[in-house]
Amino acid sequence: MKTLIRTLESDPNVRGLGLAALLAGVALVAWAALVGMRARTEPSHCPAGTSGQSGRCCGAGQRVRGGVCHGTPTACPEGTRLVSAPTPGCVVVPEKVLVPGGSVLLGPTDWDGASLRTTRIVSVRTFYLDQAEVTEHRYADCTRAGMCPVRDAGREPGLPVSGVDATLAERFCAFAGGRLPTGAEWTFAAAGTEGRRYPWGAHGLVCRRAAYGRVDGPCTEGARGPDLAGIRKEGETQSGILDLAGNVAEWAKDDDGHLSLRGGSYASMAAGDLKSWSERPAQVSAEAGFRCAYSVP
């Protein structure tokens, strides 16, 4: 900084400006550089209508304590609504999205060779898929009906159900009149007929589109679990399906009984985990959640 000031003072074009004006100019340049550096190192990880704190995105007016959004939101983001009991929070409105049947050719490219080594065709019949992951608020309906076991009290209503095995996920989906999607259905919903690398398209993996890298980066640090379901509209598919990349890894079950988890999670750090054809072994963890599929007669 001192070297820069001496250099400017020796310039006859600026000597007449005075030291105060000179210092003000230098400070402005330094501030602009700092802002630019922060913009590069601290990406925006929360969508519009939410506030980001400690690895979480909460409804407007809420505060994070112990990884949990506390207080009653003053406003909820698009596609969600406020619920007040038993715990206040923003909850995605559950909807089903029609996925017309079809086929997609998936094959390795220069970018995808490491995670997609062989060319294959994925074909499905027309089906419906939950627009968003099943939330704690929606799961509570199954509990009240005596069809699903009770989960710990005090969970945020807008969080996706997580830490569950495929049996519990199937139990809820049966209550809702559906089933778990097959691996082919899940992949087709994410990739579409054009074989999208990510649910929203070929590029643009940013923190506002998917809840990933939230434990140890790259999006933020300190997350203890998933984020609110259905708030990342920038990451939706062309048909409006949300959170197929990140947040919770989702159970899929093939007709032969083969189980897998799809789509990565809030803890994923590598782009390969978020791709439309990503798959991980069927192991129960805090990252495992689900959504339901519904057959069309």
Q: What is this structure's SSE topology?
A:
Layout lengths: L1 H8 L9 H23 L8 E4 L2 E4 L3 E3 L2 E3 L9 E4 L5 E4 L3 E4 L2 E5 L13 E5 L2 E4 L5 H9 L21 H10 L7 H9 L57 E5 L5 E4 L16 E2 L7 E2 L3 E3 L2
Parallel strand pairs: 11-14
Antiparallel strand pairs: 1-2, 3-4, 5-6, 7-10, 8-9, 10-15, 11-12, 12-13
Helix pairs in contact: 1-2
Characteristics of this structure?
single chain, 297 residues, alpha+beta, paralog of FGE (formylglycine-generating enzyme), 2 domains, 3-stranded antiparallel β-sheet, 15 strands, 20% helix, globular, disordered N terminus
Q: How would you characterize the largest beta sheet?
A: 4 strands, mixed
Mean pLDDT: 86
Structural class: alpha+beta
Secondary-structure element string: HHEEEEEEEEEEHHHEEEEE
What is the first-to-last residue Cα distance?
73 Å
The name of the CATH topology of the largest domain is paralog of FGE (formylglycine-generating enzyme)
Pick out the low-confidence regions: 2-9, 12-17, 19-43
The CATH homologous superfamily of the largest domain corresponds to paralog of FGE (formylglycine-generating enzyme)
What percentage of residues falls in helices of 4 or more residues?
10-25%
Query: How many domains, in number, for the residues?
Result: 2
Helix segment count?
5
Number of E-state strands: 15
The backbone outline, from C-alpha atoms, is globular
Strand content: 15-25%
Strand order of the largest sheet: 13-12-11-14
Determine Rg (CA atoms, Å).
23 Å
